[in-house]
Amino acid sequence: MGHLFGREMYYLTWVLQFTILLLGNMGFLLLGGRALKEINSEFSDSPLRLQIYIVITGAAYFVFAFLVPTVSSMRRWLGISVVLTFTYIVILLVIVVRDGRSNKDRNYDIYGSNFSKVMNGFGAISAIIVCNTGGILPELQSTLRKPAVKNMRKALYLQYTVGLFFYYGVSIVGYWAYGSAVSAYLPEDLNGPKWANVTINAISFVQSIISQHMFIAPIHETLDTKFLRLDKSIHSRENLRNLLYLRVALFSGNTLVTAAFPFMGDIVNLLGSFSLIPLTFLFPSMIYMKVKGKSTRMGSKLWHWGIIVVFSLLTVATTISAVRLIVLNVKQYSLFADP
């Protein structure tokens, strides 16, 4: 973007990308904290505050990031992640289907004014876009061996066919089982045996550790390149000390912000609206028009200009929706509230 549109666009793209990574990490912190709280709820009628579990999650992320400092060290963990994912899906679907068959009182009505329904719909679009960024993981991994482009396309095809089948399958079955009142964190609604609920939430917690490390890796890489001695081993005393400081600073800040805002998920949706939509849909068409706009066919021009106009409007609409939801939650919650 900087090469085609100038230095200002370069910095704008850089800020948007790194904001996505930071807020995404905060979303994972909230996910891990909620998973731990659900485990505690299985053994106690008065679980500890969510903030305590967020701090525990932040500490776990720090330890993992310190012991596994680079993406190249993640190889064995990716295999573990695959096993955990399918274990989670199988156990979850069995319980959800059983709950759905026994739940005769589920309601699919959507309440609220027409305006709130429209705004919530745009908010849902932001959430969907955020959740679908998981495709970046196989895309990044596939570029490590040649031919990079061909492997990347295979990885994306797999992600957005088989991957989405399971991803949306769980969402659809959950909505069928519990109706429109279903929780944003599906394991909260499960009525299965204690061992199953504990297992599902434990998997969610461990998986959040592995997944967040993949997404936050570019920030780790940037900080490590800036502050570590590249002429020395990463395991040298000086580099280990600096690595410790960097990881502590990053996860302390992220954990503090996440604990302060119990509606962090809405802020992540805001990220999806004003950052991910432009990066995913607008910028590629802008680049295409800048490079080939004068020589391309009229049909192609109309297609890309249509994308630019439609997704510019969608960016505005989803951003308004996300800001509205945050304002409503600010009125409802105080800082460090326990929702």
TrEMBL record:
Protein name per its UniProtKB record: Amino acid transporter, transmembrane domain-containing protein
Organism listed in the record: Artemisia annua
One Pfam family it belongs to: Aa_trans
Presence of keyword Transcription regulation: no
Membrane-spanning residues: 12-31, 52-71, 77-97, 155-178, 244-264, 270-291, 303-327
Compartments (UniProt record): Membrane
GO biological process: amino acid transport
UniProt-listed InterPro entries: AA_transpt_TM
Gene Ontology CC: one annotated term: membrane
Highest rank taxon of the organism: Eukaryota
Swiss-Prot/TrEMBL keywords: Amino-acid transport, Membrane, Transmembrane, Transmembrane helix, Transport
Domain Amino acid transporter transmembrane, residue spans: 3-323
Main location, first listed in the record: membrane
Record flagged with keyword DNA-binding: no
